[in-house]
Specification:
alpha+beta, 60s Ribosomal Protein L30, Chain: A, 5-stranded mixed beta sheet, two-stranded antiparallel ribbon, 7 helices
């Protein structure tokens, strides 16, 4: 009877496919480590490269020895300084332009004030119309008696000429202009104007409309306001003072 072949004992350890799998995982790990090393900037190496480039630009003296003419300024600092200088030059240029524009505007306002005063003199309205210059404004103050009848907001012919001359001058500038109506403290009771608020506001509006229609002023720079009796120049304790408080102020703002 033939002897049975002795069975070989089972081998111990990992299966053969694990060897191939381990090699694949190791290769993938090396690949990703390589990618990571290429993506991260080594600060020390960057400094070394910068120093190397700086050394390349150092001057060489007659004996062949190098000396550092940049005194250790890094390339990035040089670029920052350059950008800073460019920004300063641009700001300086803009400041010069703004200064020139401001001087030009101031000169225009000075001429307007002078021409307004000459127009008042020509029209012989010195007792009723005044030009008042303050720090931020130039105000043309017109007594209501020149422009309106008592209790009315319709502009009289006597006041149209001064308004027309004013509008032609103000048309040449871009400054904001506020037309402010003021009354005294005597109450008004009419169907058209129940209070001084309505009367002062309507007077200011009519002046604005006349300036636009007669001279072609830009409506966008005009504002009409009514203040009633609540911003008097002097106390309303006499007829003379009340006459001073009844007025139209054309306020020209300095600066755009």
């Amino acid at each position: 009877m033939p002897r049975r072949k002795q069975e070989e004992p089972a081998s111990e350890g990992a299966p053969e496919w694990m060897t191939t799998y381990s090699d694949l995982v190791t290769l993938l790990m090396c690949f990703f480590v390589l990618l990571f090393s290429m993506a991260v900037i080594d600060k020390q190496k960057f400094v070394e490269v910068a120093n190397s480039l700086r050394s390349s630009f150092q001057e060489v003296n007659g004996a062949g020895d190098k000396f550092d003419s940049s005194k250790g300024n890094a390339l990035i600092s040089i670029m920052e300084a350059k950008n800073s200088n460019e920004i300063e030059e641009i700001e300086h240029s803009d400041n010069l332009k703004m200064s020139e524009q401001s001087q030009e505007e101031a000169e225009k306002l000075k001429n307007i004030k002078k021409e307004l005063e000459e127009s008042i003199k020509d029209l012989q309205l010195g007792d009723y119309v005044k030009v008042i210059e303050e720090k931020t404004t130039i105000t043309l103050r017109i007594d209501s008696a020149v422009l309106f009848k008592s209790g009315s907001a319709e502009i009289e012919n006597s006041g149209k000429e001064v308004l027309k001359r004013t509008g032609l001058l103000l048309k040449e500038i871009e400054n904001e202009v506020f037309v402010q109506g003021h009354t005294d403290n005597i109450p008004i009771y009419t169907s058209a104007y129940p209070t001084n608020w309505e009367l002062s506001a309507k007077r200011a509006i009519n002046v604005v409309l006349y300036l636009i229609e007669a001279t072609g002023m830009n409506p966008g720079k005009l504002t009409a306001t009514g203040n009633g009796e609540f911003r008097p120049l002097v106390p309303n304790d006499s007829e003379e003072n009340r006459e001073k408080n009844r007025r139209i102020d054309i306020v020209i703002m300095k600066g755009k």
